[in-house]
Amino acid sequence: MTFDLRHLLSVSVISAAMAMPALAQETTTSPDAAASEATEAAETEMVDDLVLGEESAPLTIYEYASFTCPHCATFHQESFPKLKEEYIDTGLVRFIQRDVYFDQVGLWAGALARCDESKFYPISGMLLDEQSEWLGAANGEELVASLRRIGAKAGLTSEQVDTCWEDETRIRNLVATYQQNATEDKIEGTPTFVIGGELVQNQPWADMKAIIDDKLAEAEENAAPAE
Length: 227
Prior knowledge:
11 helices; single chain; alpha+beta; five-stranded mixed beta sheet
């Protein structure tokens, strides 16, 4: 799945997302609304990255992922367990997932995952593992119920989920953070990775593993004291 940065979610779309569980839709922004959006944008704050693994790891990997992207789900199910076991859990890689919001549904899912930041990666994992199930909802009501069930499995109450979905300031901050990061890193689709500062497209695990090993070797070489 790819996207065009000219069509990133606007604050008007954010408002629509919080108002109803619908898929992304075309919107027309009036001059007054545009001015209001500019004011709100100036008041946004960047949301902190959430790190999985050791802060002292010699290599950092960023994954840009969308909860509604099937290729992201495939990566999570097939390659991520190997990445975690071989590199994250062993202290070699510091991993950071950065959400991409293609549509309102993905934004709802992202807000749910960020509802309790200590549970971000477990909730993210469930959203990607069960993507075909909750995205297969017949209507908005069924979709919301499915997302609530995922939140409940992670220990979130219905009231907590409602609070997260209704926090418009937080939603604006999430989207502003996504927009800035994706623009700076020149992200054009998901999943896309930044491995040791290098932009890497999604590829088979064996090829990605080779890149990771090369970057770790570079990091080790750079960290070695000069003779």
